[in-house]
Amino acid sequence: MRSLRLTLVHLYPDLMNVYGDRGNIITFRRRCAWRGIDLDVQPVSLGDRLTAETTDLIFFGGGQDREQAVISPDFVTEKGAAVREAVEDGAALLAVCGGYQLLGHTYTTVDGQELPGVGVFDVRSVPGSRRHIGNLVAEVELNGTTRTLVGFENHSGQTYLGPGCRPLGNVLQGGGNNGEDGTEGAVYRDAYGCYLHGSLLPKNPWFADHLIQRALFRRYGEEIPLAPLDDSLEDRAHAAVVNRARKLGNQRSGAW
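-> structure tokens emitted (256 positions)
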């Protein structure tokens, strides 16, 4: 059997981890281990160095405004260039909520402080008048296949996309990027940002596998098929969220 290994950089795990975002790391670990892929998870926080050449996969979770204000200077000055280089070189990236916002150009806090981002995504985020809370279902097309992503959104920030990236999906239930244009998340190369917390990947195992495959392509320069897994429990969790959302009918979100 061929020996495979990947390096995953977990950005600011001590500061940016709300609503179960760490569960996405557990999912990456387990799905790689079940297939015999050696996954090296490297926590990278304030003052740590990120090396683009050896990074195959990046995860950046969500946080509150105060944590975002703490890490923003370090992220922009110490890690931004390496993150952009890794993404341009084909590294896969998943960012949720606060991480997603700081990967854009700017994020403005509810107190009016404008925090610079690193500009991987052509997006800007501003405070909104409503908070979006509840299950979010989005229709996503990847690799020619249309599927649903489910997660739990809890954010007052509103994110608006520029022409340099495209939405991750169209909102079927929930608020999404801004509660206005029906979009959710952003995609640039193999980098994905979204507002889907709680935890995203355990309820969407196919998306976890997509990210692992893109990371393998980054490392080995070829498409490496993944051995199928029994996802019956994960699929039931996904279906439960979709069915729960359908019962809400045309209610667009739990905004308040």
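Residues 108 and 114 are 4 Å apart (CA to CA).
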